[in-house]
Every structure is written in C-alpha cells, then in structure tokens.
Amino acid sequence: MKKYDIYGIGAAIVDTEVIVSDSFLSDNEIGKGLMTLVDEERQKYLIDSLTTQRIPVKMSCGGSACNSVVAASQFGSATFFSGKVADDEVGVFFAKDLNKSGVEFHQVEPSNGVTGKCLVMVTPDAERTMNTNLGASLELSYREVDEKALASSDWLYIEGYVVTDDQRTAVARDAMKFAKQNGVKTSLSLSDPFVVEVFSENIKTIIGDDGLDLIFCNGDEARSFTGTHTIEAAAEELKKYAKTFAITRGPGGSLVFDGTRLIQTAGVMASAVDTNGAGDMFAGSFLFALGQGKDFGWAADFANAASSRVVSQFGPRIKAIEYISLKQQFNL
C-alpha cells in the first residue's frame, strides 16, 4: 500500500489575483491570455500601476502542479509536493497555506532570494493573463525531490512549466526516471501553448523514449505539441508519447484516451468569471478519481464538473463545501 496517492513537482508560487481592464493590458503591452515570465522589477512596476484593483481578490499558494495536488488533497487524496521557496514572508505564507490544504511539503533549505509570485490579471470576459516571476523556483534541484516519499506514491505529477530551463528539465527527467524504476505511475501536464511551442524538445526529454503513463493538455497544447491541426489528429500523435491522455476542451468537455478507446465527455455549463486554475483542477480531480478506482470516462465527467465550479468564481480554488457537494453529486 502506497503512502501517497500523488506526488507533485513544480514551481512554488504565491498567486496574487487582481481584476484589470482590457486597456490596462494593452497600455502595459501585456499579451492577453498568456503566461509571461517577468523579472521582479517588472512585476513590481505592474503591481504599482494597478489603479482599478489595488487589493488582491485572492492570495493562495499556487503554481500549476501545486494547485492540482491541493485539489486532489481537498477531495481526499494523500498528497506530497516538492518545490522551492525563499526565506521570506511570501515563502512562509506558501508553506502554511499548502499545509493548511493538507499537502505535505518538502524543501531541503529555503533560498536566499525571493519566493516566486504570479500576478494573475482577470479581465471582465473571465480571461486570465499571468505575469510570473519564478524567483526561488528557478533554483529547484534534485535535492528537493524526496525519493523515499516518491517511491511510496501511486502517481508522480509534474507541470510542464518546469521545462523553461535546462536545470529544472533535468530535475523532472530524473524524477520521472526514478518513478518508472520504482513502479510509480508517471503523468505530465503540458501547461501552456507558449511553453509547448518554445520548449517541446525539453518536454520530450522529460517524457523519455519509453513514454509516460498519462499526459494532460488542452486542445491548443495538444495541437502545438504534435504539430497537427485538429484534435483528432493530435490524439493519434499523443499515443506515441503516453499510454493514456486527457485533452480538455473548455465548455466542450474533454477527450480522453484510456489506452484502448477514445472517450468524448460533455462539458458542464458554467457562467465563467475566471478561467484561472481550470486545467489544474481538472488534473487534480481526474487523478483523485483514478485513485478511487474509477474509469477514464467517469474521471473525466467528475473533472469536468470540478473545473466548471472553478471557472464560475475567482481564484484557482473552490470552497471546502464545494468539494463535499461534488463528491455527493457523484456518490463518493
């Protein structure tokens, strides 16, 4: 019996969510709907420029994989997370918020720099635009990987954002290799269309010659990674990289492959307020459902429902009562 259901690795970032106008994005030459890496100075300038929304709507421990393991933990999975924060106020907040969510956090020693922060700018159409300063997350090393905890996990889940530099790509590659050698199932999220476009070779390094057990991506990421123009063609190509996969399609539900057949699941109607964290919630709830012994179609329906709850409110988390009501809805 494994001690943990999911072991996540990714950037340890504190999400600070604010509401902005479209003109704020254009005035500051910010690419709408994208995740852009910025330095500390640029991020501070943007925060200081905020006139409409000086007080964050929400602050939470974040980063893509972190959001997913928090979601799984809130549903009832035993989870573990590896990331790197600094010895600062924001780093202390991250560790406390993560532990409060029921996730065990592994860090050898804090960095002397600054903890990563993501400024999440939400426009009136619910689109989220992220400017991220990775801070201490850039210093993630294999020392942050707790091999004992990883070997005692059912799944390893890594976010695709780690591929933006070679050092963290190597950490992810080595963690995947260790997981495979120790009978731990491997999963990866492609995370972002831009990341896939620019760093696809690094993603392939993490996947390795023998592929992964499960890949998560959205339609844009799937097409970009496989160099195809349709979801159907992308799905065929993805089979070369993973035994199974899940392609999210927003309101269009999801297309999942369970190793034998492709299953199209319907989306759940939601009035979108903020799309931040929808993909992270999908992955976390999907892995939770698999841990409950559910099949891919069931897991996708459950994950679609959970994601629809996230987009209808601010921030990448849903309230504790919502996790309970989702489990009741699906008779868990």
Automatic annotation (TrEMBL):
An example of a GO molecular function for this protein is: kinase activity
Q: What are the UniProt keywords, alphabetically?
A: Kinase, Transferase
Pfam families attached to this UniProt entry: PfkB (PF00294)
> Which residues belong to any copy of the Carbohydrate kinase PfkB domain?
57-318
What Gene3D superfamilies does this protein's entry cite? 3.30.1110.10, 3.40.1190.20
Q: Which residues form the signal peptide?
A: none
Domain of life of the organism encoding this protein:
Bacteria
Q: Which family does it belong to?
A: Belongs to the carbohydrate kinase PfkB family.
PANTHER family per record: CARBOHYDRATE KINASE PFKB DOMAIN-CONTAINING PROTEIN, SUGAR KINASE
Q: Provide the protein name.
A: Sugar kinase
